[in-house]
Amino acid sequence: xxxxxxxxxxxxxxxxxxxxxxxxxxxxxxxxxxxxxxxxxxxxxxxxxxxxxxxxxxxxxxxxxxxxxxxxxxxxxxxxxxxxxxxxxxxxxxxxxxxxxxxxxxxxxxxxxxxxxxxxxxxxxxxxxxxxxxxxxxxxxxxxxxxxxxxxxxxxxxxxxxxxxxxxxxxxxxxxxxxxxxxxxxxxxxxxxxxxxxxxxxxxxxxxxxxxxxxxxxxxxxxxxxxxxxxxxxxxxxxxxxxxxxxxxxxxxxxxxxxxxxxxxxxxxxxxxxxxxxxxxxxxxxxxxxxxxxxxxxxxxxxxxxxxxxxxxxxxxxxxxxxxxxxxxxxxxxxxxxxxxxxxxxxxxxxxxxxxxxxxxxxxxxxxxxxxxxxxxxxxxxxxxxxxx
Length: 389
Known about the structure:
- The protein has two domains: 1-66 and 356-389, no CATH class; 68-348, Alpha-Beta Barrel (TIM Barrel), CATH 3.20.20.
- Helix content is 58%, strand content 12%.
- It is built from 16 helices and eight strands.
- It has helices at residues 8-11, 17-30, 33-48, 54-65, 71-82, 100-118, 136-143, 150-173, 184-201, 219-233, 247-257, 267-283, 297-309, 329-337, 351-367, 371-386; strands at residues 86-92, 125-128, 176-179, 208-213, 237-242, 288-293, 319-324, 342-348.
- Helix 13 links the parallel strand 6 (288-293) and strand 7.
- Helix 4 (54-65) packs across helix 15 and helix 8 packs across helix 9 (184-201).
- The longest helix is centred in the middle third of the chain and has 24 residues, at 150-173.
- It is globular.
């Protein structure tokens, strides 16, 4: 079992030689920190200055990490992955919008994606990001219990209505809905709102999923409290578990504002927290459903071992494994080949609008120890295998 993720033939079975070469080139670039910083600055400048770089971005980094510019564009990728048993989560990755019209547009897009998923077995989940439905400052004010103006109260009511509309659509269409996590200072309001949605729409099974970022040391305690509430009130819990995406920002803000950082003291502490939360959910799988979003091989093996210990089938529909498109294919495709439920997050959107997401991906790969070198090693091995070396 421990060598499961070393099979490069299965991992890259969908990649042509050209796509494999492009992946090698991209991860080689990402492996160079100064180059990532320079490339990010140049790309941002080129896009702001309306220089004709979209074609180049589309042919390289965009096509590696994204499914397309719209949902129809993604279908060929979705269908291709599903031939290997890997499902997709279409993720409209447009970030940083702040206006009501834009929030309504994201709502409509999310509703469209739920209807789209209903027609496609290969798409078992829909997803949205809370900051796509409302202003970050407003979530923060509500989460901190600050007095908000009548206009802001109306604005918040619209945020709640967006959440409710999309959760109801998921419930009515029987499509599970993943709600992404955000920075800690707006997460309290998100948690409260998602709890309300779980109470309302998770009465017979988990439809609405919150996300726990487990580089935060308080998240397992939060889950335990929610579990007590769910037992009392009779609803199911859906959780996506990830390590987290805003560590530097979180630590910097904590220092700047003089409060204890919400982030675990070390990578080891985060790993322990992640695995302990996975174990807690599997121990309570009668009332919970887990979407384990991880690129960590050890955590993946840990969950597989737990499933075996509990006598759970590899395709138990309460347990899903998830990775990002363009990364960790050795985990995703080998898991699927062994009968586990696997879904790749498949980002899409106009090239310009998706750039903040792509830049974050590049920076994350650069900062996560071993991630890029592992990708490079696997790609190199597969290239050599194909050449008969």
